[in-house]
Write the structure tokens for this entry.
Amino acid sequence: MDTLFWEEEMETLPRAGLESIQLRRLRHLVARVYKTVAPYREKMDAAGVKPEDIQSLSDLAKLPFTVKEDLRENYPFGLFTVPMEEVVRVHASSGTTGKPTVVGYTKKDLETWSGLMARALTCAGVTPKDMIHNSYGYGLFTGGLGAHYGAERLGATVIPVSGGNTKRQITIMQDFCSSVLLATPSYALNLADTMADLGVDPAHLSLRVGVFGAEPWSENMREEVEQKLNIKAVDIYGLSEVMGPGVAMECLQTSRGMHIFEDHFLPEIIDPDTGEVLPPGSVGELVFTTLTKEAFPIIRYRTKDISRLIYETCECGRTLVRMEKVTGRTDDMLIIRGVNVFPSQIEHVLMGTEGVEPHYQLVVNREGNLDTMAVDVEVSEQLFSDEVRQLENLTRKIQTDIKDLLGVTCKVRLVEPRSIQRSEGKAQRVIDNRKI
Ligand code: DLL
């Protein structure tokens, strides 16, 4: 398969050349941030590090981390490095607790972002001939507008449908011949199920590829959505604090890991408990430093996302390091009676079980002093109408598989098809009633 590039030279730079660009950009950034943003300056002073101390890329580890709390404490614009008249757009992430985090962009930042998003779409084989159906939410969320401007920059046609109104989306897909779907993987499944309800056969649509991200999804989920929508599904990663969608992107060749756009974002993997930088190839928490952003650069931002960096060369010819599919977040780890449980591990068990649909929710409660976890999962129409004994066997099987994998006993509840609330954006997988 021939590789399509957006900026071939940057995407295929030998490592030494890439690192020299990164170092130059990093030194410039640190000096600028130190001068213009008091909270960064104070943290660096407290850590005893000055901009001149950054002489090599490994000196990055001398700099203090930035965490979500820093953004909250400086809400809304306290970490911006330019006067507000240079900021042409803001986005915010809703956040389930506390104040939202706000990010800003200059005109040049928007150009960089749309260029990187065009680069990401090109990785997925998207061309100006495509009709892009953008179901990422428009608004303060970076997904909708971020993807939108990248698609326009690429020269494709964008349908800015946003999330929701699922039946109408399907009509539009049919009538406008959408060839690329941009959505969260859970919304893509929602679309697929609604098509099945309406008797629409995806094989009769023009859809060819799905660019899915904004939430974790497993390999099994990929197979499911590829088969249900009759497309190739690729993973896209990003976060508002770093830019939005288009920080990293899977290529069509390997489907193993997303190329991080390292000429703009410097990744590290750290031990989430000690903060220590881990050797190449280790699994740990992803940390990003932006290298080119103007309004809202960020230094060593702790994403809480768990991944691993893959340095082997990729068949597509890109030299940019790949991050493995995000397997979970350090903060969505549930501790159930002392055992660490990631929703992705439960998803792995469920998706490997025949007759079970990719719609599930974990419900955590505290009864007395004891944590309890229930797994609600939909089963197929056919199974649901089967004998009770059959359902009991399935319940027991899932319970045993979860117990074997995680050592946790949970209650499994097989629920009717379509009874778990469908997502129109990011799916809510966990309801933790202990926090309330
Ligand atoms: O979700 C940006 C985005 C929009 C990415 C559209 C891709 C597509 P936030 O709302 O700030 O930004 O959420 C960022 O979402 O730290 C991850 O935990 C999660 N996330 C994003 N992409 C992926 C992915 C957007 N491909 C947070 N796989 C991140 C797993 C993802 N998790």
